[in-house]
Prior knowledge:
By secondary structure, the chain is mainly alpha-helical.
Amino acid sequence: MEMDIKKMHEKPPYGMIAILFFGAFVALLNNTLLNIALPSIMTEFSVKPSQVQWLTTGYMLVNGIMIPASAFFIQKFTNRKLFLTAMTLFTIGTALAVFAPTFGVLVASRMIQASGSAMMMPLLMNVMLVAFPIEKRGSAMGMFGLVMFTAPAIGPTLSGWIVEHYSWRTLFEIVLPFAILTIVFALFKLRNITPNRNMSLDVLSLILSSIGFGGLLYGFSSAGDKGWDSPIVYGTIVVGAISLAAFIIRQLLMKDPMLDFKIYKYPMFALASIISIVTSVAMFSGMILTPLYVQNVRGISPFDAGLLMLPGAIVMGVMSPITGRLFDKYGPRVLSITGLVITVGATYFLSRLELTTGYYYLMLIYTVRMFGMSMVMMPIMTNGLNQIPMKSNPHGTAMNNTLQQVSGAIGSAILLTIMTKKMERSGAELAQQAAASGNLPTSGEAAASVQNEIMLKSMLDGINYSFLIAAFISVVALILALFVKRVKPPQYEDVKKQQSENPNITSETAPE
Length: 512
């Protein structure tokens, strides 16, 4: 039975939300926990890099399939039943991974994990939107950002330390008891607060969505490894794009769509989506290019590379609730513009790296960059969601989470390609200069040393150039942020007044 909205807004169910937060944190931490352990898994199961990559690719693909469908599941099933089902699937996958006897079983366990974790963020975001009144949503979504940004960023540092001292299976052994504990608490404390309605799943929409988003994610994520000229890469991208176009057309024509694209008629939600996509591209680029510089150019260990990025994750986590409170007071425009100015400046400084750039200087710039981004993502997203009607919240949250996944994959692939092409051009130019000056030995240790120096300099040029492009991308987001306006939907009392005048109006259908 649904709680009374007004009573809930006066006294939000903090205990219940804490359980959802903990479950989402555990699931999101698991997203990036395995990345550093891949070499150890390759050795144990004797698999190639292209095969071991399926541990992350398979996880990502299931997310790409499940997140767009989350709008249907959130409306169809109660939040209690959905959370318990998602957490149970995640726990089964985790337990299976601990004892996985073969690589195939390990891949299957990761995909089972993903089928559960994919529901967590849209469900949690939707519960937050229902549980808190509009004037407190900023603070609430700020706490949500604490989970969203901190957990994935802590993963590489934590796993780097664990893999250095223990087996990769320990990564799953640590997560398993927390997952079980979350289920136990949820059984006793979780209540139903989200509105539900009887609806049926359109199978064709699910198929088109899975092929569309899954194809794009796989194609763009594989481009860095296989190359853009690979039939698998451009084939899956083309099939994904066609399927996605068919999916969008079908949703626009349906009376009861699986994912409602009509919410883009709300200008601030549409603008928020565009800014989030552009910012996600810039953010993911930093998370990929920085470790490449630290490990490949500077030769710093993976664990120290993770430590370098940890302060940025902590700052982003700490700032998220603070930014939420500032959003409630000042709105999104001032925050997003300030944050993007900082992001543009820090990204530009990252495009000026040298072979001898200091470790702590790099840590400082990266942390400042994450500080800037902490002021952008959640305020912009919350402002956009504030404009859509309550009944469309599941569609808005599903859309935001899906677009972040897809834009992150696409942006990372494009920026890695830009880096590779620049690296090839720079390497050829440096080799020509060395040959013209007569400083290019043909054999021996001297030749190997010169070639290694050319490789490092060309990679540095590629990384710097990609960061410069990321800075320009951030400028685009900054320009768009100038057009953001604070959304002020009617308060609960205004809705009740409208209801008294017209009984047909509900809190879901009240005009914006």
